[in-house]
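Predict structure. Chain length: 334.
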Amino acid sequence: MATLNRLVSRLPTPFLRTLLPSIGLAYALQALVAAPSIGLQSERFYDLSGSLTYISCTALSLYLPTLRARYASSLAGSTTKNLPAWPSLLQTLKTGVSGSEAAGVWNWRMLALSACVGLWAGRLGTYLFARISEEKGDSRFDGIRGKPLVFGGAFVAQATWVTLCALPILALNSLPASTILATRGLLPTDILGLGLFAFGFLFEVAADREKSAWSAAKRDKKHSEEFITTGLWGKSRHPNYFGEMTAWTGIAVTSAGVLMGRAGQVGMGLAGWGIWGRLAALGMAGVSPLFVATLLLKVSGVPMSEGKYDKRFKDNKKYWEWKNNTPMIIPKLF
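Prediction complete.
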């Protein structure tokens, strides 16, 4: 602990002293899960560990300044009773801010976005864990679970996924206390961003529930359809992906509103960078939805799904009619 604290203390700004350890935790947790998973050649806890990594990294970014202050105070001889107090959830909800500049501060926006990440990750993780427990495997890993280096690479990739997707909230939570206090007011980007998250999250949940209900009905032989074309799946070929991309765009918008502002630039140590500082802040926020969209549209989402179904239903006229007349991502609501 002492060695780690000394290493972190050498980082040049308070912003980096919270941001980089929060990112490092993602790789450490994935390494812990990768070791037994590779040994057992099992991907059962892969998705669940990803969700727990989201939640853990976000929590660390909230608590790390206070943890460091309490550790330093204990080294100085303070008793447990006299250690710096933790920021209060209830006080933050009541007044919009809590804590002290010496020991870490929360404002309402940090808690709101952290809750958004926790809600999204917790819901997705439990949904995917329930699915793999029922199906007894994940076809994505059929060709790699027996190859330790390649299988291990999947956990490194997942840590990178968590890092890039969560970067807007990790950066926001890593701002120094003075910046957090200065940015506690409501911004237009808060309303827009949180609204987008709520819409996207609910859309994704609704799409996943529709597909789960359809799959359950098929297992119970209540229908003989080979693929789902009803509900939101009749408006978009991948409505769950649309919801996910919209949700992360909302988180990015809310974060960018602070990071690109004057106080955010000062807090990140970019105040003298001019337009480049704002572009750097935009990049920290925007990398999340951009990475999600790239992953879903070009890598593991649409290409894998549609490639599989195109082969399976190559002679099915109903499938091609649905595919040719249904938008890939953005729903045709009218």
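Summary: The longest helix spans residues 188-219.
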